[in-house]
Amino acid sequence: MADEVTTQENFALFERGDRGEGVRELQQKLADQGFEVGDVDGIYGGKTQAAALEYQRRAGNLNQTGVFDGATYNALMTREPVTFGTPLTQSQATPPAGEAQEDTFLTDLTEFLKEEESFRAEPYRATQGEEHLTIGYGHYGSDVKQGQRLTQQQAEALLVQDINQRLPAVRSNIPVFDNLSSNLRVQIAQSWFRGGIAGSPNTIRLINQGKFSEAADEFLDNDEYRNAAQRGRRGVIARMDGLANALRAEAN
Question: Does residue 28 sit in helix, strand or coil?
Fold first, then answer.
């Protein structure tokens, strides 16, 4: 099977929601290398997805999506255990606090965006006049074409890919990002992805200075927020309030 997989490196072989002996085999291989997959039960759930993403991160040269494409499958089945060279010791199997928090943050962010965006299997134009179409869980871009159709699993994989592509810009502009609470990181990321906080350099400056209450006030001090209800954009108010509230909570 490895030869077949090698020729289909970007094809999603196993992803969240899948079940069966193939998933069980992957879980066992990951568990043997010290990755936390929960029960080895043949169900590709959240813990297996987080383990797959961490494996891809440590292995290098793999798409960090949490989906087992051909390249990831081939690496897991044919390479020596990643990073460590030998099976993990108990101390190695327990990730550092920062890595454990990162796993929780990515899961929390994915679930938050899924709930906020809702799943759309076919392309649509989210706002009149937008250049490109949107599909899945808010995926927008020139790659979205009329006639496409996604499953929920495909849409989730695309969302995880979008998250991993956009987070470097967040971390570059907010160097303190990884030291913040998971809730605030989720709120900053969701706002950044929608163009909110990315367009507020004063808010970013205040966050980097640790002035969270002032950052909350600055973030809401604009016409977009004040006029959102009048323009029928109550969703904007809720999202901006979410970030402002998380900033104020960080100050306490």
Answer: helix
Least confident of 79-93, 137-151, 158-172: 79-93
- Residue 69, strand partner residues: 12
Instruction: Phi first, then psi: give them for residue 11, nearest 5 degrees.
Output: -80, 130
Residue partners of 237: CB distance under 8 A and separation at least 6? 225, 228, 229
What DSSP element (H or E) covers 109? helix 97-117
pLDDT of residue 201: 93
Please give the backbone phi and psi of residue 23, each rounded to the nearest 5 degrees, phi first: -65, -40
Q: How far apart are CA 165 and CA 161, in angstroms?
A: 6
Query: What's the rounded mean pLDDT across residues 101-108?
Result: 70
Are 166 and 110 within 8 A, CB to CB? no
DSSP code for 124: E
* 43 three-class SS: strand
CA quadruple 168, 35, 93, 75: dihedral, nearest 10: -80
Count, residues in the chain: 252
Specify the DSSP class assigned to residue 214: H
**Tens digits of per-residue pLDDT, 31-68?**
888 888 888 998 988 888 888 888 888 877 788 888 88
Dist. CA 140–CA 132, nearest whole Å? 7
Fold (CATH) for 2-94: Muramoyl-pentapeptide Carboxypeptidase; domain 1 (1.10.101)
- Give CATH 1.10.101.10 domain extents, the chain: 2-94
Residue 118 has pLDDT above 70, yes or no: yes
